[in-house]
Amino acid sequence: MTSSPNAPTRISPTHTIAIYNHKGGVGKTTVSLNLSVCLAAAGYRCLLVDIDPQQSSTTVLSRTGASPNLVDVIRKQAVIEDALHETVVQNLWIIPSTRALTLLETGLDDRVRPNHGLKRYLTFSEDRFDFVVIDCPPAMGLLSLSALIAADSVLIPTTSGAFSIQGVQRTVETVNALRGGLSPGLVVNGILVSLFEGTRRDQQTLKDLGSQFSGLTYRNRIRFDPEILKAEVKRAPSTLFNRATHSTQDYIFLTAELLGRIHRQRRLPDADFSFDAVTQTITETLGKPEFTSVAVDPDADTTGIGNGKPGAGLDGEPDASDRKPAGSKRQLAMAAVIFLAGMLCGGSLATWLGPTALTLFQTAANVN
Ligand SMILES: Nc1ncnc2c1ncn2[C@@H]1O[C@H](COP(=O)(O)OP(=O)(O)O)[C@@H](O)[C@H]1O
Ligand SMILES: [Mg+2]
Q1: How far is the CA of 155 from the centre of ligand 1 (A)?
Q2: From the CB of residue 155, how many other CB atoms can be counted at a distance below 10 Å?
Q3: What is the C-alpha to C-alpha distance for residues 166 and 316, in angstroms, rounded to an integer?
Q4: What is the assigned CATH class of domain 15-322?
Q5: How far apart are the first and last CA of the chain?
């Protein structure tokens, strides 16, 4: 097992977090991936369990069709240790998903016994993992239910709008119902606004969450960031794809806030936890070449991470200064096109367009 140079105090016993909301498209997979990466960067040994048959986390950290997987374990064709796959990130392992997991959902496969099964399979020796993060499918089916039963806490990502709040409400109700029965120790670790644009609707959502679920909503939220969409296309966690972008900063602060909450829930001494030390460790580790072999965004500004401060997401609008200038390559190509167009359209037009092309060539050269 890879050991961390900045090994923090071990989390023991392992803390299992289900990332779940009744509603789809709220950022469950994005949060699962980036939270796992940041926990690993903080020095914790982390396992991401992808139980969504859509396999989104799997395609980023492993490959579809990877085996043995969870279904092989449930069918007793493999043991859980064999289903742990190393990833391209230090300290981070994955149990990949498979489309065969839908068989659990529809109950078509009578060899499979869900519910408490997942909890039993995800029980590891105390020194194996600090954190297990479960990326759940949307909808409260057998898979999500077994994930909640296997978990110590639930992180509920949400976007803004009435339906999202409804989704949060129903998820909290489900957790309360489980606490009264199958999972007495289960807690909501936090509600996270995972795609914050600073609109009036977003601000209203924050207010509503604050009044309905007082103390549960994370102070830090994840701002909308086109880099997350670019990273998705490249099949990379955005915190590795672009370390300097504002959402990476948000994920670092979220991870530190979550660690602080777990620290308090476990009644550990205050002196053992420092928000600033955690964020600094994550920031430094994300920048170490040995931490991952994920290819970074070629356009990314890698001179520093984000421009925020703790709780940077609290002031509303995503900061326009966070957005990177267009890449110099694009400017160079535009200049060449204008210049050629000028040449083709004759001397007088070329004289007119020439200075524009020249300015663009100069700007591109300066950016380089
Ligand atoms: N902060 C963000 N900024 C921009 N896009 C985001 C952000 N968070 C998530 N997304 C995008 O939103 C979509 C839904 O996110 P995803 O994590 O797949 O949700 P879920 O797993 O709940 O279905 C994806 O295309 C993802 O890249
Ligand atoms: Mg998903």
Answers
A1: 15
A2: 26
A3: 23
A4: alpha beta
A5: 41
* Domain assignments of the chain as residue spans, ordered by start: 15-322, 328-367
Q: Which ligand neighbours the alpha carbon of 20 most closely? A: 1
Taking the C-alpha atoms of residue 29 and residue 137, their distance in angstroms, rounded to an integer, is 9
In the chain (368 residues long), the average pLDDT of successive 10-residue segments reads 56 92 93 98 97 94 86 88 95 94 72 67 86 93 90 95 86 94 92 95 91 92 97 96 97 97 87 92 96 82 51 34 38 54 50 48 44
Which residues line ligand 1 at a C-beta cut-off of 6 Å? 24-30, 56, 194-195, 222, 224-225, 228-229, 232, 247
